[in-house]
């Protein structure tokens, strides 16, 4: 394992399946089978945990990115150029490349490679690096898909191992790893889970339309996550903002400021980063949600998988209410109290 010389940070992210994200700008709607002359292209280091790290670092907060990559991999070089602190586990296979096709109206199409297969020694080295840096962290983020070779319940295993570090744990994943995490019991439940509506529907075993069309059904599905041991649920709703629910029964909803969407890639990751930054600053739950939605909206207004700086984030433009979207409680609008 190679660790850069900078000290451990307050946030540690694990990106077990990182990627170089290549964004291709289409001049119009995708025309399958036709020759398309691109408006432009650019490549950025990515993967959900890496995106969180980039956004946290852009705000000036300390963060360590744990990931598998050779020292000479272009992924490592790109992250060094951004000034990120890395704890990298060397592997023989290059980091995968993911492709994003962006249309002028903001529609994005992603083509993701599976990533290199990690054997047991590589997985064990990643776990050791994660636990080492978690000992100095306030938050540990387990984010993204698992690479080929990792067991489906690896995130559940990591959550249990991380408990002894004292760091709080946030998880943002989907499909089989998400289902395995919640099936592993309360001892594997994270402090914060960040599903979108599709992932929430997967966990509840209902069609996505059931949670998007009926706020009460969405809240009931969120309640099942609390029953499984999850302390806080940050449910992202895309252009409709997000909902924050806590285990003590409090619920807030937030709508984003109006922005021109350029790319939604990484917007959810930036939302998670915004939430963590506000929490590190001691913000109340409503302002943690405000910061999350402001960061997600700012990300969506940027090209590719670019992450916003604090100067590009507009917390004051976010409307936060106590209660469900469209079903506020008598507390109505929640004023901002200085969240980042």
Automatic annotation (TrEMBL):
Keywords: ATP-binding, Kinase, Nucleotide-binding, Transferase
GO cellular component, one term: cytosol
E.C. number: 2.7.1.56
CDD domains: FruK_PfkB_like
Residue ranges, annotated region (Disordered): 98-117
Pfam families xrefs: PfkB
Positions of the Carbohydrate kinase PfkB domain: 35-310
Extent of Polar residues compositional bias: 98-111
Family: Belongs to the carbohydrate kinase PfkB family.
UniProt xrefs under NCBIfam families: 1-PFK
Protein name as it appears in the record: 1-phosphofructokinase
The organism of origin for this protein: Modestobacter marinus
């Amino acid at each position: 394992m190679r660790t850069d010389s900078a000290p451990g940070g307050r946030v540690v992210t694990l990106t077990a399946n990182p990627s170089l994200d290549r964004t291709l700008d289409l001049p119009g709607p995708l025309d399958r089978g036709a020759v398309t002359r691109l408006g432009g292209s650019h490549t950025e280091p990515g993967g959900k945990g890496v995106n969180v790290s980039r956004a946290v670092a852009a705000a000036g907060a300390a963060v360590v990115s744990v990931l598998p990559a050779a020292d000479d991999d272009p992924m490592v070089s790109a992250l060094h150029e951004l000034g990120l602190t890395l704890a990298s586990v060397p592997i023989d296979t290059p980091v995968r490349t993911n492709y994003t096709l962006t249309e002028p109206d903001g529609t994005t199409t992603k083509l993701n490679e599976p990533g290199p297969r990690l054997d047991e020694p590589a997985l064990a080295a990643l776990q050791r690096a994660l636990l080492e840096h978690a000992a100095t962290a306030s938050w540990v983020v387990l984010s993204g898909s698992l690479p080929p070779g990792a067991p489906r319940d690896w995130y559940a295993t990591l959550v249990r191992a991380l408990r002894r570090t004292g760091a709080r744990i946030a998880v943002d994943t989907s499909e089989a790893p998400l289902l395995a995490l919640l099936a592993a019991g309360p001892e594997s439940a994270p402090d914060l889970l960040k599903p979108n509506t599709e992932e929430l529907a997967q966990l509840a075993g209902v069609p996505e339309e059931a949670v998007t069309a009926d706020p009460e059904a969405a809240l009931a599905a969120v309640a099942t996550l609390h029953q499984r041991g999850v302390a806080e649920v940050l449910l992202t709703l895309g252009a409709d903002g997000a909902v924050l629910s806590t285990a003590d029964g409090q619920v807030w909803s937030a709508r984003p400021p109006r922005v021109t969407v350029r790319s939604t890639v990484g917007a959810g990751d930036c939302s998670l980063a915004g939430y963590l930054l506000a929490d590190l600053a001691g913000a109340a739950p409503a302002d943690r949600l405000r910061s999350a939605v402001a960061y997600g909206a700012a990300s969506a207004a940027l090209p590719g998988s670019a992450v916003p700086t604090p100067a590009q984030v507009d917390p004051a433009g976010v409307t936060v209410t106590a209660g469900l979207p469209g079903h506020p409680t008598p507390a109505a609008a929640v004023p901002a109290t200085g969240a980042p």
